[in-house]
């Protein structure tokens, strides 16, 4: 492992601390009795406190120093005075340990008394301090020049998501997003618990990936010698519990879908699903409006939430628009009575990419998604989906070609999906068989037939309404974030590229290529000044690393920088 100069210096300090008999990573409990926030809120001059945190800045002025400690609640100023810390003749704790062997980023514990500085700053006068954890890497802290211009901020998105622990240290506002996420989930739990619904847990490893149309992750259980899937939805298990006699159950579920990644999709995501017996999708729309109104107030203090350039109003009621009417409004095509071929033709006319594996449901879904969805900024229930789009949904009581289903659109994206649940086991089997036909045509997102779920329905499931709400997307809305990676502590990332270590000869070649991108091969060899043997060895290795290429053109051989 190649260390930077600062990392080497910090390791040398670590050795010196140990030589002084100081354990840089002590095991004993440290008796913290205050935080930066509690000190400021309940400030008393002369009050004794014990606080711990990360050293974030300091200004050493001889035998005195002001510094800042950062804990989970914020920052507090601390004052180090040599004679307060070292009242006897031995001044090493201040002169050697504090001044020379501590670094920004180290975690320390402080025992002290509160006082107010001449400029009115609430401060801890340090009487004693303990090193609790030595930081071996320097923090990427922002700096400001004489004009107040800030630079070297830790704001590269990939680095922030990959090193969230650093992001949380140096960008305190990031923590606010995740605090608000907890408020949102707590608000939902409180709403459902007050109604008497039971929070439950269902399997993540499943023999059949049911409850949604999605491509699953596949794994293998060695002891049972069977394939298992990571859950794509928890719907079918929750409905089994309704069959078993619970009137209302809900779960915050980690779901997994082996599909694309972008600003609104992560392969691992959180969904809250609720199922309530003796209800329908009309009741669920009314309930969802009340829920989101409460969540907005609990999370932001208002029913109006700023999202990008829009102000979203979560106060009930929300408009209700049939999906086929929405398509007619935004495309001019009335697709209500079209068959698969006609829908495919309309999709092609609208410039939507389609293929032969797509049935009626998938085609309507694509048309709505591409041409309509983005128009619905304010919360809107899109209702009454065609039967082909909704294999788990009860047939519409007024139109047998439709189902009693809604999706809630907010800020141009789906936030929730809900049904009057299909509880006719014969109808459900036929719908599953239709999905099987789509799978045989090549649709890798078509649903599997879950024989055990069909067996459960044959015992009788009461009329039920269910909903799934995307928690990550809900948090994005409530925190005004446009990327799902901002609301996940540890989003899925591409493998980290390993740093390529080059020899001195290889560096010479690539440094010559870097400003121009490409150069005649002979010219590059002459400029490098390398012997034939070193040239051949270096260029072969650079080609193996994939960062150097020789291309033959009409004008001769050219060396190309492939980085």
From TrEMBL:
GO CC annotation: cytosol
Requisite cofactors: Mg(2+)
A Pfam family this chain is assigned to: tRNA_anti-codon
SUPFAM superfamilies noted in UniProt: Class II aaRS and biotin synthetases (SSF55681), Nucleic acid-binding proteins (SSF50249)
The entry's keywords: Aminoacyl-tRNA synthetase, ATP-binding, Cytoplasm, Ligase, Magnesium, Metal-binding, Nucleotide-binding, Protein biosynthesis
Catalytic activity: tRNA(Lys) + L-lysine + ATP = L-lysyl-tRNA(Lys) + AMP + diphosphate
Chain positions recorded as Mg(2+) 2 binding sites: 414
Primary location: cytoplasm
Subcellular location, record wording: Cytoplasm
GO biological process entries: lysyl-tRNA aminoacylation
Ranges of residues in domain Aminoacyl-transfer RNA synthetases class-II family profile: 181-495
Classification via CDD domains: LysRS_core, LysRS_N
InterPro entries attached to this UniProt entry: Aa-tRNA-synt_II (IPR004364), aa-tRNA-synth_II (IPR006195), aa-tRNA-synth_II/BPL/LPL (IPR045864), Lys-tRNA-ligase_II (IPR002313), Lys-tRNA-ligase_II_N (IPR044136), Lys-tRNA-synth_II_C (IPR018149), NA-bd_OB-fold (IPR012340), NA-bd_OB_tRNA (IPR004365)
Top-level EC class as recorded in UniProt: ligase
Coiled coil: none
Enzyme Commission numbers on file: 6.1.1.6
NCBIfam families tied to this protein: lysS_bact, PRK00484.1
Assembly mode: Homodimer.
Family: Belongs to the class-II aminoacyl-tRNA synthetase family.
Name by which UniProt lists this protein: Lysine--tRNA ligase
């Amino acid at each position: 492992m190649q260390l930077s100069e600062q990392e080497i210096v910090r390791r040398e300090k670590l050795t010196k601390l140990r030589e002084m008999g100081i354990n840089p990573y002590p095991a004993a409990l440290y008796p913290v009795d205050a935080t930066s926030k509690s000190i400021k809120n309940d400030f008393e001059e002369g009050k004794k406190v014990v606080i711990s945190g990360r050293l974030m800045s300091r200004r050493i002025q001889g035998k005195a120093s002001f510094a800042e400690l950062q804990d989970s609640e914020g920052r507090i100023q601390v004052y180090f005075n040599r004679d307060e810390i070292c009242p006897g003749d031995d001044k090493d704790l201040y002169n050697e340990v504090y001044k020379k062997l501590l670094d920004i980023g180290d975690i320390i514990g402080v025992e002290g008394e509160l006082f107010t500085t001449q400029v009115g700053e609430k401060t801890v006068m340090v009487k004693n301090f303990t090193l609790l954890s030595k930081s071996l890497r320097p923090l990427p802290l922002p700096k400001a020049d004489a004009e107040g211009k800030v630079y070297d901020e830790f704001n590269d998105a990939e680095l922030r998501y990959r090193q969230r622990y650093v992001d949380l240290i140096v960008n305190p506002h990031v923590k606010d997003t995740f605090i608000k996420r907890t408020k949102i989930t707590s608000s939902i739990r409180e709403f459902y618990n007050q109604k008497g619904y039971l929070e439950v847990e269902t399997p993540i490893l499943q023999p059949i990936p049911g409850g949604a149309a999605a491509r699953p992750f596949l794994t293998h259980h060695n002891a049972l010698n069977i394939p298992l899937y990571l859950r794509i939805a928890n719907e079918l298990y929750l409905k089994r519990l309704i069959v078993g006699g619970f009137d209302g159950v809900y779960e915050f579920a980690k779901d997994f879908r082996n599909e694309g990644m972008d600003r609104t999709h992560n392969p691992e995501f959180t969904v809250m699903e609720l199922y309530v017996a003796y209800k329908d999708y009309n009741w669920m729309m009314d309930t969802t409006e009340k829920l989101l109104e409460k969540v907005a107030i609990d999370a932001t203090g208002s029913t109006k939430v700023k999202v990008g350039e829009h102000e979203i109003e979560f106060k009930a009621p929300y408009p209700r628009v049939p999906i086929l009417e929405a398509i007619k409004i935004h495309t001019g095509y009335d697709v209500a009575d079209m068959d698969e071929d006609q829908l495919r033709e309309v999709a092609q006319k609208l410039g939507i990419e389609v293929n032969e594996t797509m049935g009626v449901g998938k085609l309507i879904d694509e048309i709505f998604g591409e041409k309509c969805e983005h128009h619905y900024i304010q919360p809107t229930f899109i209702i009454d989906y065609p039967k082909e789009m909704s294999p788990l949904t009860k047939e519409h009581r007024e139109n047998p070609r439709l189902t009693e289903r809604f999706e809630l659109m907010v800020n141009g994206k789906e936030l929730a999906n809900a049904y009057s649940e299909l509880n006719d086991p014969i109808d459900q089997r036929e719908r599953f068989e239709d999905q099987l036909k789509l799978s045989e045509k090549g649709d890798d997102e078509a649903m599997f037939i879950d024989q055990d779920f069909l067996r459960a329905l044959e015992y009788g499931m009461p009329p039920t309404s269910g909903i799934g709400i995307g928690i990550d997307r809900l948090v994005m809305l409530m925190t005004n974030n446009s990327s799902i990676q901002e609301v996940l502590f540890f989003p899925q990332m591409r493998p980290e590229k390993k740093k390529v270590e080059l020899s001195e000869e290889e560096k010479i070649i690539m440094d010559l290529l870097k400003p121009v991108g490409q150069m005649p091969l002979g010219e590059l060899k002459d400029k490098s000044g390398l012997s034939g043997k070193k040239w051949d060895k270096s260029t072969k290795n650079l080609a193996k690393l994939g960062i150097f290429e020789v291309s033959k053109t009409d004008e001769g051989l050219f060396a190309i920088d492939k980085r």
